[in-house]
Write a structure and sequence with these properties.
By secondary structure, the protein is α+β, with helices and mostly antiparallel strands. Strands 2-3-1-4 form a 4-stranded antiparallel sheet. The chain folds into 2 domains: 203 residues, Up-down Bundle (Multidrug efflux transporter AcrB transmembrane fold), CATH 1.20.1640.10; 80 residues, Alpha-Beta Plaits (2-Layer Sandwich). The longest helix has 31 residues.
């Protein structure tokens, strides 16, 4: 299926400097949000503590729930609405050294004193110790690092080192922008989000390799073209495939984001941002990096001669 005419020739490469400015601005906005919020908003998986999801038979609000529980049941807590309903909430507490059953019982008893017997349903309780959370956080980060190293080795073997460097820069760009979006919207980072980051890396890499494959093919086909024109031609050749893949993927992820419910909302949000920036980076980050590398190498040769 061809959405784009085969002979289309959009000049993407000439806009690379504008794209670089946009990327830098978005990254700085994300980093500023991270600093202003005092660091990442780690979920219970990474920060440790307890999260309780409760559902009421009647409408209530987060402030009232918090006033009931703190400090009689919990030393401190953050209560926020969960999903689209006005009777379901997440209660987050730093306590993680008490038994799950004891905390659950005390919490339900206190809430039922206010709302009535049988008015509260505890839908899930998760507890992670601070040391376990720290260990999970370290392993999650290392999973991303190992994925990057593996990609660097694989692309260096399949293509060339400059292709591998371009791909890694694009992947770092994608993960950084997605991480910045999480900081900007104050969303939690936990194990499911690490899984989303790894999925983003895989999606973005696949899109980048498609373009790289076409660049390699066109090097032998268009000997009379400059390297910039060759890259531009390759991006245009794969544009139809890129649009089809990105659009169909976005439709699925958008459906998860809208209709998937609160449990996978943040996971779907990460994928939504990742698919958009991954498609963008394969055109405006990974490919221009090849041109930058080529110009740098030519400059070194000229200086030596």
């Amino acid at each position: 299926m061809e959405l784009i005419k085969p002979d289309i020739n959009i000049d993407f490469i000439s806009k690379r400097r504008y794209a670089a400015v946009i990327s830098v601005v978005l990254i700085l906005v994300g980093l500023a949000a991270l600093v202003l919020r005092g660091g990442p908003n780690y979920g219970v998986d990474f920060a440790g503590g307890t999260v309780v999801q409760v559902r009421f038979n009647q409408s209530t609000d987060a402030v009232q729930i918090k006033d009931l529980l703190v400090p009689e049941v919990l030393a401190s807590a953050v209560v926020q609405r969960f999903g689209d309903e006005d009777n379901e909430f997440l209660i987050r507490a730093e306590e993680s050294d008490n038994g799950l059953q004891g905390m659950r019982t005390a919490l339900v008893q206190k809430l039922e004193q206010e709302y009535g017997d049988g008015s509260v349903e505890v839908r899930r309780v998760e507890m992670v110790g601070p040391q376990v959370g720290k260990d999970l956080r370290k392993k999650g980060l290392m999973a991303i690092v190992y994925a990057m190293v593996g990609i660097l080795i694989y692309i260096s073997w399949r293509f060339e080192l400059r292709f591998a460097v371009g791909a890694i820069v694009a992947l770092l760009h994608d993960v950084t922008l997605t991480f910045g979006a999480f900081s900007l919207f104050d969303k939690e980072i936990g194990l499911p989000i690490i899984a989303a980051f790894l999925a983003i890396i895989g999606y973005s890499l696949n899109d980048t390799i498609i373009v790289y494959d076409r660049i390699r093919e066109n090097r032998g086909r268009y000997n009379d073209k400059s390297f910039a024109d060759l890259i531009n031609r390759s991006i245009n050749d794969t544009l139809s495939r890129t649009i089809l893949t990105s659009t169909t993927t976005l439709l699925v992820v958008l459906s998860l984001f809208i209709f998937g419910g609160g449990v996978i909302h943040d996971f779907a949000f990460a994928l939504l941002i990742g698919v958009i920036v991954g498609t963008y980076s394969s055109i405006y980050v990974a490919s221009p990096m090849l041109l930058l590398w080529d110009k740098f190498q030519n400059k070194k040769v000229q200086e030596k001669s």
